[in-house]
C-alpha cells in the first residue's frame, strides 16, 4: 500500500524521460536510472543505472536505498555453465575514467520488499552511496516490463 | 536411417555445461540414442504441464511445428524479463513467419507461478509466448529432457531459483536444433530460429 509521503515522492519525480537526466556527485556522473514495471508489490523490482567516473581515483557503489523497497541490495547476474544465478555484490567498482553500467544481465539493484507496485511511467527516488564520493539521490524512471533501457536519443537531451 | 548432424552450440564465453564447441548426435531411431549432454528429441520427452490458460500440455503436442523452450520464473526481475524481451524482439523481427513457432516458457518456480500468475506476467510480452507450470516433479522431468537444470536457493528470508538461461530450439519433427545462449547477439539468434522454420 502506498503511503502519502511515498505518493508525494513518486509524483515529485514522476516527470517523463527522467532517466535521461544527468546527475553528478564529485567526479561521478549518474545517468539512465531506470526500472521495470512490476506486477504488484510481491515480486522484487530492479534498478539499472550508469555511473561514469570522470576523476582520477577509483570509487565504488557500496549501497542503494529507496522508499519503494524495504530491502534493496546489489546483485550481479552471472551465467556459469549455462545456469544463471545472481549472487550478492558487496560493491560495484567504479574505476577512474570508466563507465560502469548496472544493466540487464549484469550488475543490478535488486529491490526486495517493494512497498508499492512499480507502474510504467511513474518514478521513484534512489539514493546511491559511493565509498568515496558519498551519497546522491536520483530519480528512477519506471519503464515497461519489456524495456531494455531508456531511449534517450529522442528525449530531446 | 542413420544421420549424423553437427551441432554448433553458442560460442559465448562461459557457455553451457554441455557446450561441445562442435558436437555430434544421432537422430531418433538409432541406438544408442542421443548424446547424453544434448536435449532429447521432443518425441522422447515425457511430461505433463498446464499452460497459462489452464490447458494440459504434453511435448507430443509440439510435434509438427518448430519449438522454442526456455526456463524462467516471475519472481526473477533481471534475467527472465530480459529473455522474454529478447524473444519478443526476435518474434517481431521474424514477423508472421513466427506464428508457426511453439514458444514456451517453463516455470522453474511452479510453487508461486500458477497459470493465473503466468497469464498476468506473459501479458507484458509477445502474445505468442505461452507459459507452462505444474507439479515440481513434472517440471523436473521437463528439465531432465532438455538437459537443463534449476535449483531453489534460500535468499534473505525468501528464495530465488538458479536456472539454465539458454533458449532451446527444435525442428518441427522434434529433433533438437540449437541453443541460443543467454548473452548471444540477436544477429545470431534470429537466423538460428529461421533455420527451424524452413
Ligand atoms: Cu537480483
From TrEMBL, chain A:
Q: Which Gene3D superfamilies match?
A: PCu(A)C copper chaperone
Q: Which Pfam family, just one, is annotated for this protein?
A: PCuAC
| Alphabetized UniProt keyword annotations | Signal
Q: Membrane-crossing residues?
A: none
Q: Where is the signal peptide?
A: 1-19
Q: Which domain of life is it from?
A: Bacteria
Fetch the InterPro entries from UniProt: LpqE-like (IPR007410), Lxx211020-like (IPR058248), PCuAC_sf (IPR036182)
Write down the PANTHER family for this protein, in alphabetical order.
BLR7088 PROTEIN, COPPER CHAPERONE PCU(A)C
Q: What is this protein called?
A: Copper chaperone PCu(A)C
Amino acid at each position: 500500500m502506498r503511503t502519502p509521503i511515498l505518493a508525494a515522492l513518486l509524483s515529485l519525480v514522476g516527470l517523463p524521460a527522467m532517466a535521461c537526466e544527468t546527475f553528478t556527485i564529485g567526479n561521478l556522473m549518474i545517468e539512465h536510472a531506470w526500472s521495470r514495471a512490476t506486477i504488484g508489490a510481491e515480486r522484487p523490482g530492479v534498478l539499472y543505472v550508469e555511473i561514469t567516473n570522470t576523476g582520477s581515483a577509483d570509487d565504488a557503489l557500496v549501497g542503494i536505498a529507496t522508499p519503494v523497497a524495504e530491502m534493496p541490495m546489489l546483485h550481479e547476474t552471472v551465467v556459469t555453465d549455462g545456469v544463471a544465478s545472481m549472487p550478492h555484490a558487496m560493491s560495484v567498482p567504479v574505476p577512474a575514467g570508466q563507465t560502469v553500467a548496472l544493466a540487464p544481465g549484469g550488475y543490478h539493484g535488486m529491490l526486495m520488499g517493494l512497498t508499492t507496485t512499480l507502474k510504467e511511467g511513474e518514478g521513484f527516488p534512489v539514493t546511491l552511496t559511493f565509498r568515496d564520493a558519498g551519497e546522491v539521490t536520483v530519480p528512477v524512471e519506471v519503464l515497461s516490463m519489456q524495456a531494455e533501457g531508456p531511449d534517450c536519443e529522442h528525449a530531446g537531451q | 536411417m542413420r544421420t549424423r548432424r553437427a551441432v554448433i552450440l553458442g560460442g559465448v564465453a562461459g557457455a553451457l555445461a554441455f557446450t561441445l564447441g562442435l558436437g555430434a548426435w544421432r537422430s531418433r531411431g538409432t541406438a544408442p540414442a542421443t548424446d547424453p549432454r544434448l536435449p532429447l528429441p521432443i518425441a522422447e520427452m515425457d511430461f505433463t504441464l498446464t499452460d497459462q490458460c489452464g490447458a494440459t500440455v504434453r511435448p507430443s503436442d509440439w510435434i509438427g511445428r518448430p519449438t522454442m523452450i526456455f526456463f524462467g520464473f516471475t519472481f526473477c526481475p533481471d534475467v527472465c524479463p530480459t529473455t522474454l524481451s529478447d524473444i519478443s524482439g526476435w518474434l517481431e523481427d521474424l514477423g508472421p513467419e513466427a506464428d508457426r513457432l511453439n514458444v514456451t516458457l517453463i516455470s522453474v518456480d511452479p510453487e508461486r507461478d500458477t497459470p493465473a500468475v503466468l497469464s498476468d506476467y506473459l501479458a507484458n510480452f509477445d502474445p505468442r509466448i505461452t507459459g507452462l507450470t505444474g507439479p515440481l516433479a513434472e517440471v523436473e522431468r521437463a528439465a531432465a529432457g532438455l538437459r537443463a537444470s534449476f535449483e531453489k536457493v534460500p535468499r534473505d528470508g525468501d528464495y530465488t531459483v538458479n536456472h539454465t538461461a539458454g533458449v532451446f530450439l527444435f525442428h518441427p519433427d522434434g529433433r533438437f536444433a540449437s541453443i541460443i545462449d543467454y548473452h548471444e547477439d540477436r544477429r545470431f539468434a534470429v537466423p538460428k530460429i529461421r533455420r527451424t522454420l524452413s
